[in-house]
Amino acid sequence: MRHLSVLALCILSACAPAPRAEVSKSLASDSGALPQVSSPQAFASPVAPAPIRRPNSEMLRDFLDLTFRMESGRAIPTLSRFEGPVTIAMTGDVPGAAAGELGRLIGRLRAEAGLDVRPAAAGAPASITIEFVPKAKLRRLVPTAACFVVPGVSSFDGYKSARGTATVDWGHLTRREKVAIFIPSDTSTQEVRDCLHEETAQAMGPLNDLYHLPDSVFNDDNFHTVLTRFDMLVLRAYYAPELRSGMNEAEVARHLPAVLARLNPGGEGGAGSPKSIAPRSWVAAVEQSFGLRGGNARSAAERMVGIAMAQGWRDARLAFSFYALGRSQISSDPEAAVRAFAEAQKIYRSLPGGEIQSAHVDMQLSAIALSTGQPGQAIQFADRAMPAVSRAENAALLATLMLIKAEALEAQGQVAEARALRLDTLGYARYGFGSEAQVRARMSEVAALAARGRRG
Predict the structure, then answer these.
(1) CATH code (residue 192)
(2) For residue 190, what are the domain limits?
(3) Which of 129, 160, 298, 307 would bridge with 154, disulfide CB 3.0–4.6 Å?
(4) Are the C-beta atoms of 419 and 23 separated by less than 8 Å?
(5) What is the rounded distance in angstroms from the CA atom of residue 8 to the CA atom of residue 28?
(6) At what angle do helices 229-238 and 56-67 cross, to 10 degrees?
(7) Rg of the chain on CA atoms, in Å
(8) Residue range 343-400, pLDDT digits in tens
(9) pLDDT digits (tens, 9 = 90+) for 96-123
(10) Average pLDDT, integer, range 265-291
(11) 172 vs 7, more confident
(12) Domain boundary among 204, 221, 251
């Protein structure tokens, strides 16, 4: 399940929007519309994923935790997977860009994970059915999910009828025959793509998410938006011939060292540092801090930090705790927010695979610098973040960084450069945010930061 994204742009919600005319006057046409770009597609071809930088002994524990537990903590007794070719079909109100995004994903799954996956023939039953449903209908059933995946059905109506029964219970599966993915039909292209990546991976492979994974979409922090090399290795191992549906955890554990040695020989020999699963008290604090379950964000973030320190963590979970603390203090205590973000940044920059998380922190720091009248510092943070964001194919975050930089350039008197950068931003913004109204809203929010900085 992909949870609603509450991470990338949280600084902006602390500001009142600037008047629309102030935001768009340098870009809008006489009709008030933003300039057209040739395509909202931000990334025409996949960027080579970062290499895996952890030993197989650590990978083994992560694989078992991903495979034999669910996000709720419930144990799964046996491995289940598709046996034979996997076919995928789309139905419902399919967005125009979805076919291209699914084609790119299938290409990557075949090339990088070695999976026999292909589009279903017209009219033929599919192993995985992706149904596009209006966002409001999805939220009525699962309020905190951007999209989700269930076994045993091939339609949204079928899911509603079977909800709460063993038919759609992953714990009762010993072999996967049909799985359904439900994605909003009325959302941005990036959200469609992100849902396709995470939910297809879970439809085929592991069902759990682990907060300590810095380099995976199998993590509820939502920092990674497309499948990584770690994810592809997990899927390749999941479908290794040494494994089969119906194996229990002990049986998989006996075969897995040889599987990983064959698939990832570079990971042999290192001792690693396998991580324990985060306690439910910390996960509950995460959900409260980021608004998924309600509650005071700052108090919840402080609990996250306290639990992380008590657990002795020095990994992505401690960094995420400081990130949450910084986010919760932006409006009330910006200096404390910067200190918390700096602690998060120090940890993320030390972690193999932590580049995109570090970029998220830089976005927050860049926005704070812009709102406090430090345009030069804002540009430095944005420039440092953008390469990692491009590699991660996060158009929404990239567009936000570009808009922050454009406002900072304008604050320094570089008006022509700012206008050119805003124009360059539009393709990414339309891909990442969706409609023109949403693009305007994001421009307005960033402009409000600059206005605050000018007021001092």
Answers:
(1) 3.40.390
(2) 82-204
(3) 129
(4) no
(5) 26
(6) 70
(7) 22
(8) 999 999 999 889 999 999 999 999 999 999 999 999 999 999 999 999 999 999 999 9
(9) 999 999 999 999 999 999 999 999 999 8
(10) 88
(11) 172
(12) 204
Our count of domains for the chain comes to 3
Q: Please write the tens of the pLDDT for every residue from 82-101.
A: 999 999 999 999 999 999 99
Q: Please choose, from the candidates 327, 336, 332, the residue with its C-alpha nearest in 3D space to the C-alpha of residue 367.
A: 327
| Domain shared by 239 and 192, yes or no | no
pLDDT of residue 73: 82
Pair 441, 329 in one domain: yes
The percentage of residues in the chain with a pLDDT greater than 70, rounded to a whole number, is 89
Q: Are residues 442 and 311 in the same domain?
A: yes
pLDDT number for residue 331? 87
For residue 407, which phi and psi values (nearest 5 degrees)? Answer: -65, -40
Q: How many CB atoms lie within 10 A of CB 248?
A: 12
Q: Which pLDDT belongs to residue 28?
A: 54
Mean pLDDT of the chain: 90
- CB-neighbour burial class of residue 441 (10 A; exposed 0-12, middle 13-18, buried 19+): middle
Q: Are residues 428 and 293 in the same domain?
A: yes
Average pLDDT, stretch 135-160? 94
- In this structure, are residues 204 and 73 in contact, taking their beta carbons and an 8 Å threshold? no
Nearest residue to 10 (alpha-carbon basis) of 436, 326, 322: 326
pTM of the model as a whole:
0.91
Same domain, 179 and 142: yes
- Asked which of 227, 249, 273 is the last residue of a domain, the reply is 273
Based on the fold, state whether residues 239 and 301 are members of the same structural domain: no
Q: How far apart are the first and last CA of the chain?
A: 43
